[in-house]
Specification:
globular; 271 residues; 2-enoyl-CoA Hydratase, Chain A, domain 1; single chain; 2 domains; alpha/beta
Length: 271
């Protein structure tokens, strides 16, 4: 598959080539902050990725010195330039804004956020947390919007953060707004790995692309389904789901090819 560089977008870049899709936030002059135009483009790009055949993973990245500083304050998402006087207008706008979280979280392929720069907070943290894996540079810091601003942290962070770090630390981040450095984020489970700098981050993402790209697309999607199910199921039903999943997988061409190659290597090593 030839790479698709979608030039119709103004605030992001979409690249679908082979088994890895990449969406890059591209408002570096605004620290990749989310505005209505970026939201619409992200939703469109995420839908394209979901429909693309043979894609194993989506990498979510950001240009410039920050992955994403959150929501652009000069937008309707902070009730700027809003003429609708209804008390429900804010809720309607935020419901629309939050569609991007479900669009990322519900991708059936593996999603990986590459967190460059020194900051990742608010809505930017929400975008990252909606991904399955997060790789961060060592200088990054993570935060939720402090309650001293009388703003309720949204973007699904009230749901996602405490599932990773526990209720007490989630309250610490949300109420006090304290920034968490990369080492602490790794210890808490907010990120999966940290690397030294942007160059190391690019190298790590390339290595992941090679590793994930070699996996069977259907098997990878099935593994994600099984793991998501395991978060909330009891043991016996989960064992049954594993059996069904492998029963299907054992009959796939993907598995047959990998099994054949493995046996050939094993037989060759014994000679």
């Amino acid at each position: 598959m030839n790479p698709v560089h979608n030039s119709e977008y103004d605030t992001i870049a979409l690249d679908i080539g082979g088994p890895i899709a990449r969406i890059t936030l591209d408002r570096p002059d605004k620290l990749n902050a989310l505005n209505p135009a970026m939201l619409e483009e992200l939703l469109d790009a995420l839908a394209k990725v979901r429909r693309a055949p043979g894609v194993n993973a989506l990498f979510l990245e950001g240009t410039g010195r920050v992955f994403s500083a959150g929501v652009d304050l000069d937008t309707p998402f902070f009730m700027e330039h809003v003429e609708d006087k209804s008390v429900y207008s804010g809720s309607r706008l935020l419901d629309w804004q939050h569609e991007v979280i479900t669009a990322i979280f519900e991708q059936d392929i593996l999603t990986v956020a590459a967190l460059n720069g020194h900051a990742c907070g608010g809505g930017g943290l929400g975008l990252a947390m909606a991904c399955d894996l997060r790789i961060s540079v060592r200088t990054a810091q993570f935060w939720m919007v402090p309650l001293k601003l009388d703003v309720i942290q949204d973007f699904g962070l009230s749901w996602m953060i405490q599932r990773l770090v526990g209720p007490s630390r989630a309250i610490q981040m949300a109420v006090l707004g304290e920034r968490v450095d990369a080492e602490t984020a790794l210890n808490w489970g907010l990120v999966n790995e940290i690397v030294d700098d942007a160059e190391a981050l690019a190298s790590r993402m390339e290595a992941l692309a090679n590793q994930i790209g070699d996996m069977g697309t259907d098997a990878l999607k099935m593994m994600k389904v099984i793991l998501r199910s395991g978060e909330r199921s009891e043991l016996r039903p989960q064992l049954h789901m594993e059996a069904i999943a492998n029963g299907l997988n054992f009959q796939s061409d993907e598995f047959a090819q990998k099994k054949s190659a493995y046996l050939a290597r094993t037989t060759g090593a014994r000679k």
